[in-house]
Amino acid sequence: MKEKGGSGKGDGEGVTLEDLKKKMADFARERDWDKFHSPRNLLLALVGEVGELSEIFQWKGEVPKGLPGWEEKEKEHLGEELSDVLLYLVRLSDICGVDLGEAVLRKVELNACKYPVHQCRSSTTTATTATSMKNSNHYSNGSSTSEGASNGFQ
């Protein structure tokens, strides 16, 4: 689905990663910011935005899905920070020459192999079990890792 100049709201259409990539490239070029958009600089900016996103949840404890009790202003702020993270991620992938859409689909496939449904759907499966599955050679994708508890997206 592709956005055609509008907000994408209410028209049944959404924005694609390609749309975002083009908008970010145009935005940077129009402002002569390409010279500042090195992978390192974009990554550091992305980390900063993730920090701002984290601040929103910092003292709230566990937050239920749907954010019940949150004011509209808080949800709007959350959307802005999520957008900042996504935009920097899309720009970073573009500058690095990584097709983010393809990379995401490949990663989902790898995770499906690492975490087979029949071993993950049990009510007794915990994050610890998933981590030990991930760290075992049987479910390795060939990469060495020292990541912590897994949620299936690592």
Describe this structure in words.
With 154 residues, the protein is mainly alpha-helical. The protein is built from six helices and no strands. Helix 1 crosses helix 3 and helix 2 packs antiparallel against helix 3. The chain is globular, with a radius of gyration of 19 Å. Residues 1-8 and 137-149 have low confidence and may be disordered.
Brief overview:
It holds the Pfam family MazG-like. This protein is an all-alpha fold.
Write a concise keyword list for the protein shown above.
0% strand, dCTP diphosphatase activity, 6 helices, 154 residues, Helix Hairpins, 2 domains
The end-to-end span amounts to: 27 Å
Oligomeric assembly: single chain
User: Rg from C-alpha positions?
Assistant: 19 Å
Query: Sheet bearing the most strands, described?
Result: none
| Share of helical residues | 55-70%
* Number of contiguous helices: 6
CATH superfamily of the largest domain: MazG-like
CATH C-level name of the largest domain:
Mainly Alpha
How are helices and strands ordered from N to C?
HHHHHH
| C-alpha geometry | globular
What is the name of the CATH architecture of the largest domain? Answer: Orthogonal Bundle
Structural class: mainly alpha
Average pLDDT confidence is 83
Task: Could you tell me the CATH topology label of the largest domain.
Answer: Helix Hairpins
What's the number of extended β-strand segments? 0
GO cellular component, one term: cytosol
Cofactor: Mg(2+)
Keywords: Cytoplasm, Hydrolase, Magnesium, Metal-binding
Main location: cytoplasm
